[in-house]
Each structure stands twice: as C-alpha cells, then as structure tokens.
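dumping this here before i forget
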Amino acid sequence: MKLTYRQKVFLSKVLDIYHELQEPVHYSVIAEHLGLNNSTAYDMLRLLEKKGMVNSEYATPKQTSGPGRASILFYPAAEALEIFTHLAGDIREQDDWEDVKSRILLNISRSEVDDYPDVLKNLLTTGMPEAKSSLVRCAEIITVLLLNLRELKQEMMEQKTVDSLLQAPTSKLRMSILAGLILGLSYADEEAQLLLDIYQEYVEKYQVLLQDLGGDSLTELHLFTRDVWDILKAPAQ
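structure:
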C-alpha cells in the first residue's frame, strides 16, 4: 500500500516507540512522543491501520477488577516490520533530496546571469559526486544540461519547446525528450561541441536513471526542473 512521506515518517516513529516499549502503545503515548495532539495521532494511526501498516486492540486497565474502560492500543503490522529497513532508507533519501533541491535552487537564484558560464564550467571540469539516489543524480544532471541550454544561442521557438515540455503533464518520455533536445542543440553550437562527449555521457546516465524513478520521484524531478528553468530563463525575458 502506497504511503505519503508524512505517513512514512509517522510510521517510522511508531516503529521506534514500539521497539523501545516492546508492547502495544496507546495513541496518547505516540502523540506525546511526536509532539502532536491526541486526535491527530489517533487519526493517523487509524489511516495507517486501513493501509495495513498497524493493528489495534482493545485492552482494559489491569488495575481494575471489573470490565473497566477499554483503551485502544496500536502496534505495527507484520508488513510494516518487514519493510522497516527499506522505509528508513526512503526517508533518508527524501531528506537528502530536500537538501540537494534547496541547495541547487538557492545557488542558481543567487548567481548573476554572467556567472552561469562559470557555474557550468565548474560542474563540468570538477565533475559531480555520485549521488545516493537516482532522483538526486537526475536533478544534478538536468541542472547541468539546463545551464548549458542557457548558454546556447537559443531561438524563441526552442524556448517555447522547453516550456511546452515542462508545462505538460509529468512523464518519463517528456523528461527524456528534454535531455535529448538539449543534447541535440549542443551539436549545433560551436562552443558546446568542445564538451559534447561530457554532455552525451551525462544524457546517457540520465536516461538510465530516469527509468528507476517511481511516480512520486518523477513528479519531484519534473517540478524541480521547472523551477530551475524558470530561474534560468527569467533574465532573457
């Protein structure tokens, strides 16, 4: 069952609490640990229960002799325990992605138009460290390609083509076409031809990594690419 990032983080915390206490937990305990109000924690637990990630049980207070008032306790489902390691990796990857995305957009936003060639040259000559995820690697490569496109002698029609690709619904085909378009335009530019081998290598890596992206990651890459392009094309307008 597909989980949102928020649900993944919440579930990972529930797993931590369960492993610490080694027994089913009342939702108020989870709320206290996470700094949430009781109703928010309860609603999230019920949602995760519907998705098969947690189970619930009713228990009466041990100190009462009679039936007492039943409490609702929650504990991770077997499926949640099985995917815990994978889930923790997904969360770390998402955190890495947020850091990389913010860093790239901030650096480009702060750079002057005249600085773009230097930014591009630095990326191409020093190379980019291998990223931890396909999403981060694709984002780094598409940033290099868009910086290159910014330096090419673009026609208005070519800018409109990029705009159309990025304004259309998200798809791997369109994101692949975008990289191919930039590489194709590089063949027609004398200065860019000196670095064609590097651009071609990046595009080939990008095409392979693109196939690894799931729906959410592909959407993140699409939105990120639009943000980068909006920053880079703004000075020319």
